[in-house]
Amino acid sequence: MKKSPWLPVLALCALFVSGLVAADPLPLALRTLFAREHVPLDGISIYLQRIHARRPILAYRAHTPRDPASVMKLVTALVSLYTLGPSYTWRTGAYARGPIVHGVLHGNLYLRGGGDPYLITKSFWDLLHGLRRLGIHDIEGNVVLDQHYLHAPQARRGAFDGLRDRTYNVRPQALLVNFQAVEFRFLPGISQVRILPDPSPTTLRVVNRLRPVDGPCGDWRARVHLRIAHEAWGNLAIFQGRYPRACGLQHLYRVTDSDRRYVSGVFAELWREQGGVLHGGFKTGRISPGARLLYQVHSRPLADILRSVDKYSNNVMGRLLVMTLGAVKEGLPGTTAKGLAVMRAWLARHDLRLPHLVLRNGVGLSRSERITAAEVGRILRYAYNGRYMPEYVSSLPIAGIDGTLRYRFLGSPVVGHLHGKTGTIDGVDTLAGYLQRGGRRYIVVVLENYPAADTERGFRAEDGVIKWLYARK
Questions:
Q1: Are residues 448 and 305 in the same domain?
Q2: Shared-domain flag, residues 275 and 368
Q3: CA-based end-to-end distance of the chain
Q4: 24 and 34 Cβ atoms separated by less than 8 Å
Q5: Residue 61: which CATH number?
Q6: Residue 47 host element (H or E)
Q7: Which pLDDT does position 160 carry in this prediction?
């Protein structure tokens, strides 16, 4: 039987095709790393590209939609910078309709929140100090808290993971002071552990049953137990357990009260410290028609706010950013839905069509938000080539230096050379940003979605990808 002249060609083609199918797109070093850390290959996406290159160095499952956790904040930060501008500030104001006679404000004092993501005790103190400088020392009426600049749907605090006392579960509000949290500082002595709350709202009392003990510090938080008892007048923060003296000064941030009662308690504390007297109580409502502005404080500029949002992955601040976008561009009240609509429209106008993008709150505190590694890469590339690149990059944690990357990559050459946003929730660990090596800068995106992703194994795999790129010839 005569052999066909095409058989050798067909055989070569079959060999070529089978080689393509069998080839693993991952470099051997990464395959070995993932095998050692038991990383399922269908649970990780990688996108690595030199900033000005046309093709990525490595794009492994880069078009698979993943839960990005807090890496989603990279999208929110980009849209916020270009929509609001890096110098944008939020305003918190005090208003009144009644006259001020001999230091007495007759009528109500209205506090209007403007959605300031970083309205801390100092800012609130400055607002009240401004009223004192106007000569006001007595408020005859009530203090009315106006939260109408923003509207957040009513939701059970802690619905995401059941941890009601965590600051990241706080409901965003137009007038949100200190993220509604109290910083408890622990100072161990010979026979007792001092607990110092900051601020110390009038609606909070501390019951201290902590015992100082000898031994290593270790995981001291696991030995300190806090229970909040709600009373008609306020709350009891009841501490029990053992606190190792070796820990020295430590602190713990916890949410102890509702938003209205917390703001009321902080106001009463600060107003009393400044010598003021309040004859009325606290209510929620709207500013009375005809009320005049007495004093207002401005927030830090957006470029500074973003450093807190991204470096420390502050979910409440990020959610307030999204709602502010809605208030500024779509009208009051600002809502999450309006803010997300602004984000989607901005991305479309700037040819950043991300077909796999799913937004729920814009900060990654969700089980349903989605984006691909390649789409995160597009966001990073756009930001790097844009006019606000310095503000954008400087908002990101620096490996081994600060933020959520402070203790990552220690002892490796990557320290100081990676600006990256991290994200972690149960079963999710992500990292995306910019790696600099010599005179070259790279976009790096690693998204891990599998049950053990948020464990040390997942962190080591993620770090290993960055170290591999940094060492690559």
A1: yes
A2: no
A3: 53
A4: no
A5: 3.40.710.10
A6: strand 44-50
A7: 60
